[in-house]
Design a protein that fits this description.
single chain, alpha+beta, Nuclear Transport Factor 2, Chain: A, 5-stranded mixed beta sheet, 4 helices, 36% helix, 33% strand, globular
Length: 146
């Protein structure tokens, strides 16, 4: 006999494993084939090819980039929330900033929706201002004189 909620709990753990694999294999392991396995063809906002471009671009700017999973939470239905920390050395052009060799650390939170064992949508917020400051970019608040 199955305990109440056991199927939901099992699905939640499976979904967390998908997200964990995405970061470990695709991001940290540079395995773009993992993107094809873990990201649905209609993934929003960019599809698997957009995710591959994002990963490839990040590795071009930060060849040693690595993500640490700080928290991984299964929420209601098919949702997984991850809080992560990224670290890397700025050795390639990033958002128009030439490589300077700076060691950078930044954090973010991403919410994923999953279906059928794949990522189908993702929403992410990260400390881009802090990252840009670590890279030596001059950042001016809107409406302020330069």
């Amino acid at each position: 006999m199955t305990a109440p909620g056991e199927d939901a709990q099992s699905r939640a753990e499976t979904n967390k494993d998908v997200v964990r694999r995405y970061y470990e294999e695709a991001w940290n392991g540079r395995d773009l084939a993992a993107v094809d396995a873990l990201v649905a063809p209609d993934y929003q906002p960019s599809g698997p090819e957009g995710e591959k471009r994002l990963i490839t671009g990040a590795h071009a700017a930060f060849p040693d980039i690595s993500f640490t999973i700080d928290d991984l939470l299964a929420a209601e239905r098919e949702t997984v929330v991850i809080r992560w920390t990224a670290r890397g050395t700025h050795q390639g052009k990033f958002r128009g900033i030439p490589p300077g060799g700076a060691q950078a650390t930044w954090t973010g939170i991403t919410i994923y929706r999953l279906a059928g064992g794949q990522l189908v949508a993702g929403w992410s917020k990260s400390d881009q201002l802090g990252l840009l400051q670590q890279l030596g970019a001059s950042v001016v608040a809107p409406g302020r004189p330069t």
